[in-house]
Amino acid sequence: MLESLNPQPQDKILQLIAMYRDDPRTTKIDLGVGVYKDATGLTPVMRAVKAAEKKLWEVETTKTYTGLAGEPAFNAALVSMILGDGFADRAASVATPGGTGAIRQALELIRMANPAAKVWLSNPTWPNHPSIIKYLGMPMAEYRYFDIATSGIDFAGLMADLEGVAAGDAVLLHGCCHNPTGANLDAGQWDQVIALLQRKGAVPFVDLAYQGFGDGLEEDAAATRKIAAAFPEVLIAASCSKNFGIYRERTGVLVALTSPDRKAVVQGNLNFLNRQNYSFPPDHGARLVTMILEDATLTADWKAELEEVRQNMLTLRQTLADELRRATNSDRFDFVAHHRGMFSRLGLTETQVNRLREDHGIYMVGDSRINIAGLNARTVPILAAAIAGVIG
Ligand code: PMP
Questions:
Q1: 284, 190: one domain
Q2: Which of 79, 112, 165 is nearest to 271 (CA)?
Q3: 179 lines ligand 1 (CB under 6 A)
Q4: Which of 176, 178, 241, 248 to mutate to test the pocket of ligand 1 (most atoms within 8 A of CB)?
Q5: pLDDT of res. 9
Q6: Residue (of 67, 44, 1, 4) closest to 268 by Cα position
Q7: Where a domain ends, among 274, 294, 314?
Q8: Which of 161, 172, 187, 278 has the highest CB neighbour number within 10 Å of its CB?
Q9: Per-residue DSSP letters for 8-70?
Q10: Ligand 1 pocket check for 181: Cβ under 6 Å
Q11: Domain residues for 387?
Q12: % of residues, the chain, pLDDT over 90
């Protein structure tokens, strides 16, 4: 049986990690994989997470199964963190293995409810979106998003393409901190997208993987909250991997907003999907998040550390934009300071990206996406000088 399997194409980012690992140069710089790193290059366990783990060890008396949807307290805490108050009667939800698990469950829910529904993706998007959709055999379409000339949003292209959305289609939107571009809709543009999708009868599907990494915890949820208030049905796949720094614990949630009288049926279908795919969702990370969000002191400390992380990335953005201005004697890269989240697409050619890697030991994804958090005060000028060299 297994001899009939074909080799899978290599994941480009994982390939990059291996190349970086095998590079003997001590001056090498890793701007590839999407994890937050502090100034020393470490991905720390957050203080509040450590404190919650210690407390959990003391108070946990059993590791028997949780509920199929996860612990209700976790789901409620996440619904409130994402949406604020006032949505509990419309929100069916299940805990999932990370944001990826939530995306996968959302797609399966869409397919179960309406096999003809197309899933619309921004071009570009996180490569795992089209990969999972293709694997599930679901119809898919793209809308323009990124303007290569300005490294901002191609808003006219986006609106023109979304005119093609049919009633019942699902439109995947990055709630904040777009991956891979770093370019995000402003409030007025969100309003126009919402009005267009309302007119089309679309179902918004929000991927919220970086709440707290852009403009702030509340600010990063603003678009999702507007969408939640504007549509009868919304799917939200949220991840705690980045904002709680618990990547390997696999902690996420899928929220399906519906009418209060449909909520029980939708909840039953979400539970069913968990049962088919893995029964009970992982608990450890979800429990830590709940403990943090239910304890005022831990919440305050977590928010303070998350804010340090966010500010660190903003400072790196500004210094990189300034250094690039100096090194290239142009404003071509000013957008780096306006982008938000962990990533920016720099708009370099594949040849230039390869030269940065080969000549300078600087590793970024082939589409010239950099992880801002991979930089520090010492490496920002090195990157700026190298970029000036390869584009000159
Ligand atoms: N969505 C986007 C846009 C992401 O970048 C990521 C993480 N790279 C995820 C979802 C999923 O994250 P995880 O499964 O690690 O929680």
A1: yes
A2: 112
A3: yes
A4: 241
A5: 87
A6: 67
A7: 294
A8: 172
A9: PPPPHHHHHHHHHHH---TT-EE--S-----TTS--PPPHHHHHHHHHHHHH--------TT-
A10: no
A11: 9-44+302-391
A12: 96
pLDDT at residue number 236: 99
Ligand 1: atom nearest CA of 251 is: 16
Same domain, 264 and 244: yes
Both 279 and 342 in one domain: the answer is no
- pTM across the whole model: 0.97
Task: Say how far apart CA 207 and CA 175 lie, in whole Å.
Answer: 6
> What does the alpha-carbon distance between residue 349 and residue 152 come to, in Å, rounded to a whole number?
17
pLDDT tens-place string over residues 167-178:
999 999 999 999
Output the CA–CA distances (angstroms, integers) from residue 34 to 16, 81, 146, 293, 371, in the order listed.
Answer: 12, 23, 20, 25, 6
Q: Are 14 and 133 in a shared domain?
A: no
The ipTM (two decimal places) reads 0.99
Ligand 1 geometric centre to CA of 5 (Å) = 27
* pLDDT of 12: 83
Residue-wise DSSP of 337-350: HH--SSEEE----H
Q: Is residue 1 part of a domain?
A: no
